[in-house]
Write a structure and sequence with these properties.
This protein is mainly alpha-helical. The chain folds into two domains: 158 residues, Orthogonal Bundle (Tetracycline Repressor, domain 2), CATH 1.10.357.140; 133 residues. The longest helix is centred in the C-terminal third of the chain and has 27 residues. The N and C termini lie far apart (53 Å).
């Protein structure tokens, strides 16, 4: 395999760490630590992936053996980590010039690109094979597609090609609930598709809010995020429009009979807050407005999924179930 050129900052900052190998000389061991490899797996992103997959697994009809459920979640977590490692391998040149990512293991010189590539490929193959063989072939196939979509379609193509990168690429982050559901049932129905759509339409306002106050970083890296290509005004308009679609989708599990009144009340209240914050972003280019929306959007998605889980699993005697 042809190795991509290392970013200039990696060569500059990590030159003193790179081993010199010549005739009669032995290569030094890697300088990477366990913490560096964990960082390659993007643990914060991985935690959200595991949580949404857990919800898909537990709200699916029927009972799942604890060992099967644990194996499924472990494979999904490892697959998500593999995607993160491969993303960091390919994007090392971009990460090196962005303030938010410059201290990641590869641009900081603590992990060599080849090490990250081998790590990511090994985790990818292992997670897909184990999930497909030990849990469910459909779940394994969906995990394989998710890794492929995030690494090849989003990271290698869309991210550097179009300001719609986060919209289309958001499908990868929206698939974990469907994988969890497939692991439990061996099939996919309307409810997991709705869980997918909630995350899919949540992704643009979430990440575009971040990009509004990180636009300089993306511009320096040459990443065509919407604020860089179309400006702040258009980005703020798009944030509000996507939020208008997201909020009814967030409420939809209640009237469709997939969740009870507890979920419906929570979805209406938090959806109203999301709309208010998105409207504030639409009306003002203040950084504080975008930061508030970005922060609350994380809480919004977490609460929707957490209460959906509680609502589904709560004893019927509490009057909380659907």
């Amino acid at each position: 395999m042809t190795t991509r050129a290392q970013p200039a900052s990696l060569i500059r900052e990590g030159a003193d760490l790179a081993p010199t190998v010549g005739p009669g000389m032995r290569a030094e061991p890697s300088m990477a630590t366990v913490g560096d490899y964990l960082a390659l797996m993007k643990p914060r992103v991985m935690s959200l992936v595991v949580f949404t997959a857990l919800v898909g697994l537990l709200v699916a009809p029927g009972a799942v053996h604890p060992l099967i459920g644990f194996t499924a979640l472990l494979c999904i977590a490892v697959g998500a980590g593999a995607s993160g490692a491969l993303n960091m391998w390919y994007d090392a040149d971009i990460d090196a010039v962005m303030t938010r990512t410059a201290r990641r293991p590869i641009p900081a010189g603590r992990v060599l690109p080849g090490e990250a590539l081998a790590f990511g490929l090994t985790l990818s193959v292992g997670s897909v094979v184990v999930l497909g063989l030990l849990v469910d072939p459909l779940a394994g196939g969906l995990l394989a597609f998710t890794i492929f979509f995030y690494v090849v379609v989003y990271t290698m193509w869309l991210k550097r090609a179009t300001p719609q990168n986060i919209v289309i690429g958001g499908a990868a982050g929206a698939l974990p609930p469907m994988i969890g559901w497939a692991a439990a049932t061996g099939a996919v129905g309307l409810e997991p598709i709705l869980l997918f759509l909630i995350i899919f339409f949540w992704t643009p306002p979430h990440f575009w809010a971040l990009s509004l106050y990180r636009a300089g970083d993306y511009a320096r890296a040459g990443v065509p995020m919407l604020p860089v290509v179309s400006g702040s005004e258009e980005t703020r308009r798009q944030v509000f429009l996507y939020t208008l679609v997201l909020v009814p989708l967030g409420v939809a599990p209640w009237p469709l009979g997939f969740a009870g009144a507890l979920y419906g009340a929570l979805a209406i209240v938090t959806g109203a807050i999301m709309l208010a914050l998105a409207w504030a972003v639409r009306r003002s280019d203040a950084e504080s407005a975008a930061r508030r929306l970005f922060a609350f959007s994380i809480l919004y998605l977490f609460l929707l999924y957490a209460v959906l889980l509680v609502d589904r699993l709560a004893p019927a005697g509490f009057g909380l179930g659907s």
